Amino acid sequence: MDKILIIDDEEDIRIALKRVLSREGYQIELSESASDAVKRIESGELFSLVISDILMSGMSGIDFTKFIAEKNINLPVILITGNPNLSSAEAAIRYHAYEYISKPVDRTQLLSVVKRALEVKNQKDSDLEKLMLSEKLEKALRTQNLDLNRQNAAILNATSDAVITINHKLIIVSANKASFDMFRFNSPLDLIGQNVRILFTENKMQKYMSQVSNVLSQEPNKSTLQLSDVTLQRSDSSTFLADIAICSYSLDGDSFYAGVIRDVTQKKLMVEQLIHSERRAFLSVVAASIGHEINNSLTAIQGFVEMASRENADLMLKDRALKVTLNQTEKLRALTSNLLQLGKSVKSNTEKTEVLNLNSEISSVLQVFKETAKLKYCQIKREDSTERIPIRMNSDQFALLLSNILLNAADATNNIGTIEIKAYIQSKRGHLIVTDDGEGMSQETLDKIYEPYFTTKELGKGTGLGMFVVKQIVENFEIELQIDSTPGKGSKFHFIFPEVSES
Fold first, then answer.
1. Is 0.70 surpassed by the pTM of this model?
2. Cβ atoms within 10 A of the Cβ of 406, count?
3. Which of 263, 293, 321 is the last residue of a domain?
4. How far apart are alpha carbons 9 and 86 in whole angstroms?
5. For a tag site, which of 125, 247, 470, 475 has the least CB within 10 Å?
């Protein structure tokens, strides 16, 4: 309920005004002097409106209005007077009185003015409350932003990754502590304010700057870029490999681009060591499995040579011994040739590559594995293998890739299932699909399949590195790998190789 204070030194007028306004539902308080009203307000008593006479003993209504104006209180004052004149009217306007009414006061006019005055006061109160709330929220936001900035600064300076921000002109505008350590800059001025080109080597400059420019051409807050195995240059001209993630954002109408740079040199060395370890493991399996084949060939050669060496050996036996020896030595030559190919030094990088025939490479791997203990009793189905399908790799890495898939397929079928191999070319890209009818994999296994040392095999029957190595190879050669597996129904591995130009 709105509370109205009536100030007048004449009791009859105070009572008359109270009677009129009380009937309209207003709460009315009375003061016989302006000085008494001031004391009540200063003590903290709240009013919605004041109706005051102008001419009173002691403090006048004009002086009271001046007090309210100087205190900047949102309290409308309606002045009434029995002696209206220009001087009092000017004073009322000067001190922002809401209204100036002459006596005798008309009831209808009074109620109308009171209603409007209260509406104005309530609107101002509402606006002031919103303003105060807005200022409070703004202050809280500034405090929060300050805290976030401090937290971000602490995080940026604590991380070992370099975080560098550039503007739309490719100028470096900020960098964390790790950036100066990673690129070996002694002074911030050696990096801040420089063009981002100083981070790239000359021979890779055009390639990487083209990719960065592509991000800059896109709409801020929506463009991201992931770069792997980027060769970067330190201030002393030494180089290192890094993975870079770039994101864009806008601030005060300007576009900025933040790059998180991670040195992966040690990671690459670890991957090479893991691949080498896995190669040694699977070559041991292959060597043990084909040992009996070598012994069989040597036994056949030795037996026929001994028979042909006897004094009573006829020409037919000697001729047969010669043919068996030639056949078995050719078999051994092909076998050792393939084993030597598989045993070459591991190079996980993609620099030493050549255009290969996918079908020929598959045949080479199968030649080694077809009589091994693991694959000997598997039924291997292979579709047309005469088409030339160009892929860019090296034989060593492809052999390691396919060997791991075949060995896993053999294990999944308990070495007695069916393995289907299909190779074809589509949209100028080579495709290789290896399917088995083994036990299949659950979603949980699929989620962990690329983790190093993860295996579902019994202790001592698997290193847990096979699929990790496969993942590294497909990433190194930009091969797409799609896996489809259902428990109890088998698995399908679909490799899609990049397009190759043989010109």
1. no
2. 25
3. 263
4. 23
5. 125
